[in-house]
Amino acid sequence: MQKWVCTKCGEKEIPQDIEYCEECTEKSFKKIGGWLYLPAISLILSIINTLFLLGKTVNTMPQFYSALPDHWQFFIIFEITSNALLLLLTISTVIFFFRKSKKAPRLCVLFYLSNTIIKGITVFLIANILSIPISYNNILPALQAIVTTAIWVPYFMVSIRVKRTFVN
């Protein structure tokens, strides 16, 4: 009869239905790995993207802002404020994420939900306040946020890897 051993260390005997011994399993969960690489990359790219968008908006708006109608001024203030708040939430989430804090999964869920809500409000404002017909380009960020939230919120709520990784 063939003996099953850990595929990582190759030393300890294990049951046939698992890959790693208990020690190797614990070691692998102490670092960010598996599917958690994707939200980690996503959070970092989100910070870069938001900084770029805020910088671009803040640099170009002063020369045009006073000439804009009130509803456009309201929209721009909403965009700058919501992006700044989302940036702060994202930075906090990244800090807790890479410290592997117990708070990180809840912050990730809050980030994804907040992002989706903000994108939804933006589409609503574009259609109702600015009276711009909804187009594919206007609604795409909201749809992407909905799909992303539908994938990652359940993952952060039920994943064993998440529960074992974020323990500090």
Could you characterize the architecture of this molecule?
This protein has 168 residues and is mostly helical. It has 2 domains: 1-30, no CATH class; 33-165, no CATH class. It contains 6 helices and no strands. Helix 3 packs antiparallel against helix 4. It is elongated, with a radius of gyration of 22 Å.
In short:
With 168 residues, the protein is mainly alpha-helical. The protein is built from six helices and no strands.
Unreliable spans are none
Proportion of residues in extended strands = under 5%
Helix content: 55-70%
What is the distance, rounded to the nearest whole angstrom, between the alpha carbons of the first and last residues?
A: 42 Å
Number of domains: 2
Main sheet summary: none
Mean pLDDT: 87
Number of helices: 6
Rg measurement, Å: 22 Å
Q: What would the principal axes of the Cα set say about the shape?
A: elongated
Order of helices and strands: HHHHHH
- Helix/strand class: mainly alpha
> How many strand segments?
0
